[in-house]
């Protein structure tokens, strides 16, 4: 109840920011202190929170690489960014996160650019009311929101560690999750069932994928710590924002609820604030394996906090990718 009142009132937390803070506001005070030549890679930055994250980071002098499925939309985002910030460096590369082959191709193209990689923002996400499958015959929501980002992170992690070592600047990985991860029951969180979309329900599948992104954070944070790598990884809940994913929940009830609860919804800039804060703030230096909401460290569900569950999911995912990628034709 106290957290709800704090959210509604926009009361700032320990970071000095709260639910009403925008992405520009949370990055304004320390923008002049940022190291030069930072490079951030953002998936799903062609609309909504991702596009706003890209705009604000570019405005703060960060080189932005946008991984997008729709390059036409990506070019439009780049034009808007460069119109506001003429000196902004925005690079576009095609990626379909539901496709292992596409993720591999994207990583090869990015690494061929020989750029540093300081910040990786796994932002792209989808929601589907109907059961769909990727080209690898994996349920589409799980494939896109979780598996694609798992593979992307795995393939770029050494680059991030190397960049941090050479530059002395901490690398940061941000997984965009959702508060609805807490809706997932242990009895329904089964890796093989999620792969095949057993007893499919769109909202449950989305929630499961977002729980998986937090468990991914927990597992990778532990690995980075064991390696003494100067890279952190955290999960963020952007808040409930009426973006394309939310609009996928079509229907009279949904529209009516949005009308009634309009005061509870964040603007897109408010939704992007936590991602930008965790990516750039000096206050998050050295913080890893955590979950942030409204620009402040918060509590995820008990299931999301289980190290054993995180390790189990990581092992299952690694085994799946190893098998599928080994079988893929050259």
UniProtKB/TrEMBL annotation:
Pfam families, A to Z: adh_short
InterPro entries: NAD(P)-bd_dom_sf, SDR_fam, TIC32
Domain of life: Eukaryota
Sequence intervals crossing the membrane: none
Gene3D superfamilies: NAD(P)-binding Rossmann-like Domain
Family: Belongs to the short-chain dehydrogenases/reductases (SDR) family.
Protein name in the entry: Retinol dehydrogenase 14
């Amino acid at each position: 109840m106290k957290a709800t009142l704090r959210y509604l009132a926009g009361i700032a937390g320990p970071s000095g920011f709260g639910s009403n803070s925008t992405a520009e506001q949370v990055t304004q005070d320390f923008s002049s202190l940022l190291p030069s030549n930072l490079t951030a890679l953002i998936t799903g930055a062609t609309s909504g929170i991702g596009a706003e994250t890209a705009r604000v980071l570019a405005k703060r002098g960060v080189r932005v690489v946008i991984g997008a499925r729709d390059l036409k939309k990506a070019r439009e985002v780049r034009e808007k960014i460069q119109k506001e910030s003429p000196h902004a460096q925005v690079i576009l590369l095609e990626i379909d996160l539901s496709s292992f082959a596409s993720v591999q191709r994207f990583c090869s193209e990015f690494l061929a650019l020989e750029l540093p990689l300081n910040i990786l923002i796994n932002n792209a996400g989808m929601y589907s009311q109907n059961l769909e499958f990727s080209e690898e015959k994996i349920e589409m929501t799980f494939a896109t929101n979780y598996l694609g980002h798992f593979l992307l992170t795995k393939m770029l992690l050494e680059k991030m560690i190397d960049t941090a070592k050479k530059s002395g600047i901490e690398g940061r990985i941000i997984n965009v999750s959702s508060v609805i991860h807490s809706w997932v029951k242990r009895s329904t969180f089964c890796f093989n069932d999620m792969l095949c979309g057993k007893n499919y329900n769109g909202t449950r599948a989305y929630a499961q994928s977002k729980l998986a992104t937090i468990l991914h954070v927990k597992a990778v944070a532990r690995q980075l710590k064991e390696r003494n790598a100067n890279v952190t990884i955290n999960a963020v809940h952007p808040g409930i924002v009426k973006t394309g994913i939310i609009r996928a929940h079509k229907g009279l009830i949904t529209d009516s609820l949005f009308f009634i609860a309009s005061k509870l919804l964040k603007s897109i800039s408010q939704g992007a604030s936590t991602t930008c804060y965790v990516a750039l703030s000096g206050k998050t230096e050295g913080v890893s394996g955590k979950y942030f909401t409204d620009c402040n460290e918060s509590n995820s569900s008990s299931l999301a906090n289980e190290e054993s569950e995180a390790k189990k999911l990581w092992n299952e995912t690694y085994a799946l990718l190893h098998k599928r990628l080994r079988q893929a034709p050259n």
